Predict the structure.
Amino acid sequence: MRYYKISDNTIRRLPRYLRTLEKLREQGETRISSYGLGQLLGIGSSRIRQDLSHFGTFGVQGYGYSVTALRDAISKVLGMDHKFSAVLVGCGNIGKALLCNFDFAACGINLMTGFDVSSEVVGTTHNGIEIKSMEELDCYLTENHIDLAVLCVPKEVAVSTADILTRNGIKAIWNFTNIDIIEPGSQILVENVHFSDSLLALSYYLSETIMD
Amino acid sequence: MRYYKISDNTIRRLPRYLRTLEKLREQGETRISSYGLGQLLGIGSSRIRQDLSHFGTFGVQGYGYSVTALRDAISKVLGMDHKFSAVLVGCGNIGKALLCNFDFAACGINLMTGFDVSSEVVGTTHNGIEIKSMEELDCYLTENHIDLAVLCVPKEVAVSTADILTRNGIKAIWNFTNIDIIEPGSQILVENVHFSDSLLALSYYLSETIMD
DNA sequence: TAGATTGTTAATCGATTAACAATC
DNA sequence: TAGATTGTTAATCGATTAACAATC
């Protein structure tokens, strides 16, 4: 158990390391140095070694890292072996896109079921995931141990839906509604996927290049 | 014209400021202090003043900021008045979700048209946006001035599609394929929306809370 | 062995926070 | 005027980068 906080910057680089290692493995590479990995990622080698040092020693002097061993170590650090259970709430376009295209299992997440208000989609199955009625949500959460909720409902019901989730012991929300469902005092974890923030940052850099 | 680089951290906070200001305006607030804005965002007031100072002076001593004036100033900084033109390439689930739900105009982006390979969707219109055949993409880009492309094609064709875009003068790619379409030397701007990176970071923090 | 590369400590750099004169 | 709050300069803090002994 560690007694200091690891920086968010470090945590957010780990999935990128993982992605690059997986790519290397697919290409048949078995070893990689921190320098080599840094080249692929466009960052310095010592940043990578510094990042990894928070979690253990994974390398071998004079050799580097085993691609698969480092990949496995990072995926464990990221909690991918916990097999957290999840539900997807709101199966509109974005929700359905995640259901059909996003590989939850590859992230170590066990997606149990979806929920929606529309009678048109309730009862249907997408990618092996059944969609239940939103009315069943409250009850379902009390009867099943669910760690995480993927929130894809319309803006208007985002806060009220988040309330239902928190009341029922959900510990983390992956938030695709473009509003901040923060409750500063709350213990619940919220990871926001704000599309517009991302696009606006790109817009800024684009307008910068035009000014030159 | 500035002669120093503004940090990415600052840029990525601007859309959050904008979002909060818009919310305040909807609530009928006309003025806000950096302290008040900081409270709403969970950050310090001097960070906000420091951030804003890179772009001009928008406040009034002893009063604070006009909500609408600051909102307008930030949206201009983010290039939202440029009305950049965009195309959406790949109209599967994620592409369609963006077409139907995402408010490009609210980000100052002029979405012109979509492209897809499937004859089932080619010719259809979503949210006023027509979907053309992917075969027309190359030609369309040479005949029209397009600044930005939203890339939502399947992984397998991500790199080859990105090549078409760069060859035809696209300056920025908003990348929803979960792979890195980097070309380190390239001048093109790429903003990645890596769902899995986001989910894995959440997974890390979730597993941390469990260990306590 | 010699060369390579780690993990870690020290140095540097940049970002955040605090302080404060200016002034509405 | 007195109080509030800005924009900016200085101080602090943390993150990145460089250096290097250890060792495969």
Remarks:
- Chain B touches chain A through 60 residues (CB under 8 Å).
- Residues 7, 9-10, 43-44, 46-47, 50, 60-63 of chain B lie near DNA strand C (CB under 10 Å from a C1').
